[in-house]
Design brief:
Helix 1 links the parallel strand 1 (about 5-10) and strand 2 (about 35-40). This protein is of the alpha/beta class and about 230 residues long. Helix 1 (about 15-25) packs parallel to helix 6 (about 165-185) and helix 5 packs across helix 6. The chain has one domain (about 5-230): Rossmann fold (3-Layer(aba) Sandwich), CATH 3.40.50. It has helices spanning about 15-25, 45-50, 65-75, 90-95, 120-130, 165-185, 190-195, 205-230, and strands at about 5-10, 35-40, 55-60, 80, 100-105, 135-140, 150-155, 200. The site of 5-O-phosphono-beta-D-ribofuranosylamine (GRF) has 14 residues, from helix 1, strand 5 and helix 6.
């Protein structure tokens, strides 16, 4: 049986890539393997991580669409993971691998996503908003920015004392869990049904407080809905 070949696209340190390679190596990705790592930036530490794991890796400029498509075909890629990939994926690739590309975003989409929401700026915006919770979302990639359907979300508390860096660190730990779950769902071809009912990851220690918060959000949602039907 031909295994499920993953291509992971990166731009930076590659800790999400590392989480996927570790999961694959420990047999937690339903038989999938990381067959290729592509960075749009020279010197991305994630390239080192790939080399250390014996995974073929290369730099392909984000504008070089034909080279990216040829490389994905050469490595017989079944699914693509954007793991901190800071370029916009060309439409040709999105169409060629429609429904088989997922992205990890360091916030609870659709909140704090879209143009300009990347890196530390996401966490600065969350802190500025006064939100009591944040988290990570793994979603299907469509032709928008962070607009694809969510597959897995993971929620973490925002502490009053948090700096953006402290929040970023807490969210990143959750990203790794969320992304591995989402990749497994994609590999098992369960994306469509999961999109109907996205998976929610909440640490047991946070559950009670979050449910109080969720009741507040539900009340807000009801109020908004009623408002639309005068
Ligand atoms: C992560 O926060 C990811 O959500 C964002 O960029 C960061 C990449 O981290 N898109 P890493 O390169 O996976 O460590």
């Amino acid at each position: 049986m031909s295994s499920y070949n993953l291509a992971v696209l990166i731009s930076g340190s590659g800790s999400n890539l590392q989480a996927i390679m570790d999961a694959a190596n420990s047999g937690n990705l339903s038989g999938a393997r990381v067959a290729l790592v592509v960075s749009n930036r020279e010197g991305a530490y994630g390239l080192e991580r790939a080399k250390n794991h014996g995974v073929p890796s290369m730099v392909i400029d984000k504008a070089n669409i034909s080279e990216l498509l040829k490389t994905l075909e050469h490595y017989e890629i079944s699914g693509i993971v954007l793991a901190g990939y800071l370029a916009i994926l060309p439409l040709e690739v999105i169409n060629e691998y429609s429904g088989k590309i997922i992205n990890i975003h360091p916030a609870l989409l659709p909140l704090f996503g879209g143009k300009g929401f990347y890196g530390i700026r996401v966490h600065q915006a969350v802190l500025a908003s006064g939100m009591k919770y944040s988290g990570a979302t793994a979603h299907v990639v469509d032709c928008g920015i962070d607009t694809g359907a969510a597959i897995v979300r993971g929620v973490v508390p925002v502490l009053a004392s948090d700096t953006a860096q402290e929040l970023q660190k807490r969210v990143l730990v959750m990203e790794h869990k969320v992304l591995v779950k989402a990749v497994r769902i994609m590999v098992e071809n369960k994306t469509k049904e999961t999109v109907e009912k996205p998976v929610m990851v909440i640490e047991e220690k946070d559950r009670e407080n979050m449910q109080e918060f969720a009741k507040g959000l539900a009340a807000l949602g009801d109020a908004l809905l009623q408002h639309n039907n005068p």
